[in-house]
C-alpha cells in the first residue's frame, strides 16, 4: 500500500468520527493559539517600548530621587533631589546640553462643570525640548512665567478634549486646588509612556508648582520628582552619567550608598526588553504545557481507536497489509489531527492579536518564525504521541484481532 492510499484511509476514518476528532484537536488548537498570541503580543509590547523610547532620543538621562537598589541610605543624607541639584548639574557638567527639573503629582483639574484627573507637572521652558513635547496651539512656558510665578498652564490634548470639547482652550481659566490658571498652550498628542498617558498632563511653571501648589517639603530646598537631562550627543551619554553621579555624591556628602539614581534611555529600554522577554518566555512555556496536554489527548484517543478497530486491523492484515502499512496509517491520523489543530490554533492566535491591536495601543507582530515553530511542534507532537498507538496497532496478531470480534 502506498502513502497516498494510507492518507486517504486515514482522512476517511477521521471524517467518520467528526466529533471525536474535533474534541481531540481542541487541546492542540488552544496550545497553538496561546503560543502565537503570546509571542505576538510580547513582541508588540517590546516594539511599543522601543517606539516610546525613540521619541525621547538616545541621549536622554533621568535623575530620580531615592536609592535605586531598594537599600536604605544613612539618616544624615538628603532623601530627595532638590532644585539646587538641577542647577548644579546644568552649570557644572560639561557634557550636557539642557536640564529640565520637574515636580509632578496627580491633581483634579476643573473647568466649569467639567472635571478630570491629570498629572500636574511643574517644570521649566527646557522641558519641551528635552522631552520632545510639541505645541499644537498657543505657546509653552517661558522664563518670564518662571520668574514671576505666573499662574499659566499648558495642557495635554486629552485634558483639552475633556474640559473644552471642541472649543479653543487658549485664554480660558482652569482650576487646580481652587487656584485659577490661564491656559496658554495645548500640546500635540503624545501617547503613553511606560503606562502613563502623556496626553493627560498639565504643565505649569516649576516655581508656581513649588510655592503655590506643593509647598515646602524638604529642608534642603525645592524637592524634585525627577530631573530630565539631554546630553550633547550620543557619545556624551556615558560621560554625562559619570559626571552627574560624581557631582551629586559630592553635593550630598555620600560615602556609601547613593540616595539617587541616574538612568539613560538605553538602560530603560534594556530593562523593559529584559522584562518583556522574560514574561513572554514564561507565558510561552505555560502555553507549551497545553500543547503537551493536547498531545496526550491525541495519544489517548488513538489508543481507544486501536481497541475499537481491532476487526479492521485484523482484516487488513489477513488481506496482506504489512505492519508498516498499519503503522503509517495510524501515524498519519495522529499527524493530521495535530497539524489541523495547529493551523486552526494559529488562525485563532492571529485573530486574538488582531483584536488586541484594535482595543489597545499595542501592535502585535505576526512572526513567520513563530508560525513555523508552532506548526513544527504540532506535527512533532502528533508524530511523537502517535507512535505508541500506531505500534500497538501494527503489532496486533490478525487471528487474535479477528477472534476478538
From TrEMBL:
Positions the record marks as coiled coil are: none
Q: Where is the MacB-like periplasmic core domain?
A: 21-247
Q: Where are the transmembrane segments?
A: 21-42, 278-305, 326-359, 365-388
Q: Name one GO molecular function term.
A: transmembrane transporter activity
What InterPro entries does UniProt report for this protein, alphabetically? ABC3_permease_C (IPR003838), MacB_PCD (IPR025857), Macrolide_Exporter_MacB (IPR050250)
Which keywords does this Swiss-Prot/TrEMBL entry list? Cell membrane, Membrane, Transmembrane, Transmembrane helix
> Where in the numbering of this chain does the ABC3 transporter permease C-terminal domain appear?
285-398
- Where in the cell does this protein reside? Cell membrane
Superkingdom of this protein's organism: Bacteria
Give the membrane topology.
Multi-pass membrane protein
One GO cellular component term of this record is: plasma membrane
Which family does the record assign? Belongs to the ABC-4 integral membrane protein family.
Per its record, how is this protein called by name? ABC transporter permease
Amino acid at each position: 500500500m502506498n502513502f497516498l492510499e494510507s492518507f486517504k484511509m486515514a482522512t476517511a476514518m477521521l471524517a467518520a468520527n467528526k466529533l471525536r476528532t474535533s474534541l481531540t484537536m481542541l487541546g492542540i488548537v488552544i496550545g497553538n493559539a496561546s503560543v502565537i498570541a503570546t509571542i505576538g503580543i510580547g513582541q508588540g509590547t517590546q516594539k511599543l517600548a522601543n517606539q516610546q523610547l525613540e521619541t525621547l532620543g538616545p541621549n536622554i538621562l533621568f535623575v530620580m530621587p531615592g536609592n535605586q537598589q531598594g537599600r536604605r541610605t544613612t539618616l544624615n543624607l538628603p532623601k530627595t533631589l532638590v532644585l539646587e541639584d538641577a542647577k548644579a548639574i546644568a552649570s557644572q557638567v560639561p557634557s550636557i546640553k539642557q536640564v529640565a527639573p520637574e515636580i509632578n503629582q496627580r491633581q483634579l483639574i476643573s473647568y466649569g462643570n467639567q472635571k478630570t484627573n491629570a498629572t500636574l507637572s511643574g517644570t521649566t521652558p527646557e522641558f519641551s525640548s528635552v522631552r520632545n513635547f510639541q505645541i499644537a496651539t498657543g505657546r509653552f512656558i517661558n522664563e518670564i512665567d518662571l520668574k514671576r510665578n505666573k499662574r499659566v498652564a499648558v495642557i495635554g490634548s486629552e485634558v483639552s478634549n475633556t474640559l473644552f470639547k471642541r472649543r479653543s482652550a487658549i485664554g480660558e481659566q482652569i482650576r487646580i486646588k481652587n487656584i485659577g490658571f490661564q491656559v496658554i498652550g495645548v500640546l500635540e498628542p503624545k501617547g503613553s509612556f511606560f503606562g502613563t498617558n502623556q496626553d493627560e498632563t498639565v504643565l505649569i511653571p516649576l516655581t508656581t508648582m513649588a510655592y503655590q501648589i506643593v509647598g515646602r517639603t524638604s529642608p534642603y530646598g525645592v524637592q524634585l520628582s525627577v530631573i530630565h537631562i539631554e546630553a550633547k550627543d550620543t557619545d556624551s551619554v556615558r560621560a554625562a552619567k559619570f559626571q552627574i553621579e560624581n557631582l551629586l555624591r559630592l553635593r550630598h556628602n555620600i560615602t556609601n550608598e547613593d540616595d539617587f539614581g541616574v538612568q539613560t534611555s538605553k538602560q530603560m529600554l534594556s530593562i523593559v526588553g529584559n522584562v518583556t522577554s522574560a514574561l513572554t518566555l514564561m507565558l510561552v512555556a505555560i502555553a507549551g504545557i497545553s500543547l503537551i496536554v493536547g498531545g496526550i489527548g491525541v495519544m489517548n484517543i488513538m489508543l481507544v481507536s486501536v481497541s475499537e478497530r481491532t476487526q479492521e486491523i485484523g482484516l487488513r492484515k489477513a488481506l496482506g497489509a504489512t505492519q508498516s502499512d498499519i503503522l503509517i496509517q495510524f501515524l498519519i491520523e495522529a499527524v493530521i489531527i495535530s497539524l489541523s489543530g495547529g493551523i486552526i490554533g494559529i488562525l485563532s492566535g492571529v485573530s486574538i492579536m488582531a483584536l488586541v491591536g484594535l482595543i489597545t495601543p499595542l501592535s502585535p507582530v505576526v512572526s513567520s518564525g513563530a508560525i513555523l515553530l508552532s506548526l513544527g511542534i504540532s506535527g512533532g507532537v502528533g508524530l511523537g504521541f502517535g507512535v505508541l498507538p500506531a505500534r500497538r496497532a501494527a503489532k496486533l496478531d490478525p487471528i487474535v484481532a479477528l477472534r476478538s470480534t
